[in-house]
Design a protein that fits this description.
By secondary structure, the chain is α+β, with helices and mostly antiparallel strands. It has helices at residues 3-18, 27-36, 40-43, 45-50, 63-107, 112-125, 155-166, 178-184, 225-238; strands at residues 52-55, 59-62, 130-136, 152-153, 171-174, 193-199, 206-212. The protein is built from nine helices and seven strands; from the N terminus they run ααααββααββαβαββα.
Length: 245
């Protein structure tokens, strides 16, 4: 080896010794590289096909098989979501049909008591214990000598229940304890669960309460589409018979 070659080798060794140790790769670094080099998998397609990754059941599978499995899983999830949407659409169509029928029925009432009776019959036709309307006394003129003082409910007395059960929502579905039931349904017996909806833009007009003897009939997370529509519809019908404050 010439003196010049020996000198070059020595320079390379000194340069290598001065280089910092290679940084250990982590997930973020690999991800950033792949994002910056989108053709990586094309350039290395043959090696990619030979790669195997851990699998909880099969031990290991190819990367291609893993990707196909993910796609099949995603397609399965989409199919389930589409099925649920179709089922919900059918349910909503049925609910709105009943709602339109109820609205026409209530609008044909000849008195407030007749309207309340029609609402009660409709609820019992659905297998419920009943349907009750409670009106905040601060918002309606239903004091004596009115025949409907039993509909009155003090908003101040209702406020603790609203805070505890409804929070910022206009609807509550589930069970009520003894004092709460006595407040909103003083004449009711053996009530297992309720669907309670506030009436009015800010819930200031009162509450519509559907009740069931089944403790699991109304539960948190159930849909409130019909309840919401009824809560919006009733104040206008009630105003035919009771004056707003």
């Amino acid at each position: 080896m010439s003196h010049i070659d020996e000198s070059n080798v020595a320079d390379e060794k000194r340069t290598a010794a001065q280089l910092p140790l290679a940084t250990e790769l982590d997930d973020d670094m690999v991800l950033q590289y792949l994002l910056q080099n989108p053709d990586f998998f094309i350039r290395n397609s043959r090696h990619i096909e030979q790669m195997h990754i851990p699998h909880p059941v099969k031990g290991s599978i190819s990367l291609v098989e893993w990707q196909l499995g993910r796609q099949r899983h995603q397609i399965g999830q989409l199919e389930e979501e589409i099925t649920l949407l179709m089922e919900q659409a059918a349910i909503n169509e049925t609910l709105f049909g009943r709602l339109i029928e109820l609205q026409a029925n209530l609008a044909a009432a000849t008195s407030l008591q007749d309207m309340l009776n029609r609402l009660q019959r409709w609820a019992r036709g659905l297998g419920l214990a009943g349907a009750n309307v409670r009106l905040f006394s601060e918002s309606w003129r239903i004091g004596a000598p009115s025949d409907f003082t039993h509909l009155a409910l003090s908003r101040a007395a209702f406020e603790p229940l609203r805070i505890q059960r409804l929070g910022e929502s206009h609807h509550y579905l589930g069970a009520l304890n003894g004092p709460e039931l006595l407040l909103v349904l003083p004449q009711a017996k053996a009530i297992g669960s309720v669907a309670l909806s506030l009436m009015g833009e800010d819930g200031e007009l009162g509450a519509l309460v559907f009740s069931s003897r089944d403790p699991q009939h109304y539960e948190a997370g159930m849909g409130t589409v019909m309840l919401n529509q009824l809560a919006k519809m009733l104040p206008g019908l009630l105003a035919r018979w009771i004056e707003r404050v």
